[in-house]
Amino acid sequence: MKNTQGHHLILGELVDFITGETIEDNHDERYRQKLARILVEHKGYLKKEIESGRELLITAADKKAVLKVDYTINLTGKICIIIKYGPGSLVTRHRSALAASRLVAPYQVPVVVVTNGEDADILEGATGKVISIGLESIPDKAELIKKLSHIHFDPISTKRTEMESKIIYAFEVDGSCMCDDSTCKL
Questions:
Q1: Can you give the CATH number for the domain in which 151 is found?
Q2: From CA 58, how far away is CA 78, in angstroms rounded?
Q3: Alpha carbon of residue 116 to chain centroid
Q4: Which pTM was predicted?
Q5: Would 179 disulfide with which of 6, 37, 67, 108, CB 3.0-4.6 Å?
Q6: How far apart (Å, rounded) are the C-alpha atoms in residues 38 and 108?
Q7: Domain residues for 107?
């Protein structure tokens, strides 16, 4: 084991479950891989329906940054779920994950999952209300397909997009560690 520049303990390399690419092995990545396996092996999603590390350009006044959304799940041509991983407290990550759900597509993503890899809060995208708790309560594919006919992919206004971008910038970028590989200040 070696520790390279940054705050992650590098444990070697591993093969990404979704993409098949060789990536850096660290504790956070092990949790992300655990989540990917749950989505495919227990929740019924196909690997091709899951996008990992989707980049999200955010702006706040004259500041810009790129953040990564850990996973997006795409069904019927729409992002139906985003999953944001972060170690520690879940509730402190709700607001920034909701902001991401309003920026990752031109419509409100209906399901937002905030997880630390051991637990999860599943939020309704439109309201931010916690609708279930626990990794096991992440909606499976069959359940989500049933709900799709009742889901409204409401468009996000330009004003709302600007506000959400400022919110996520404040939560995820301002004061973030310079060695955080999930954030890139531009």
A1: 3.90.1570
A2: 21
A3: 11
A4: 0.87
A5: 6
A6: 24
A7: 48-185
Query: Strand pairing of 120-124 and 50-60?
Result: unpaired
Determine, yes or no, domain membership for 21. no
What's the rounded mean pLDDT across residues 90-113? 96
Domain assignment present for residue 160? The answer is: yes
Pair of tokens at residue 120: 């999860």
> Is 126 inside a domain boundary?
yes
Q: Is residue 33 included in any domain, yes or no?
A: no
pLDDT in tens, 130-181: 999 999 999 999 999 998 888 989 999 999 999 999 999 998 887 655 445 5
Q: What is the DSSP string of the chain?
A: -B--SSSS-B-EEEE-TTT--EEEE-HHHHHHHHHHHIIIIIT---GGGEEEEEEEEEEETTEEEEEEEEEEEEETTEEEEEEEE-SS-SGGGHHHHHHHHTTSSSB--SEEEEE-SS-EEEEETTT--EEEESGGGSPPHHHHHHHHTT---PBPPHHHHHHHHHHHIIIIITT--TT-TTEEE-
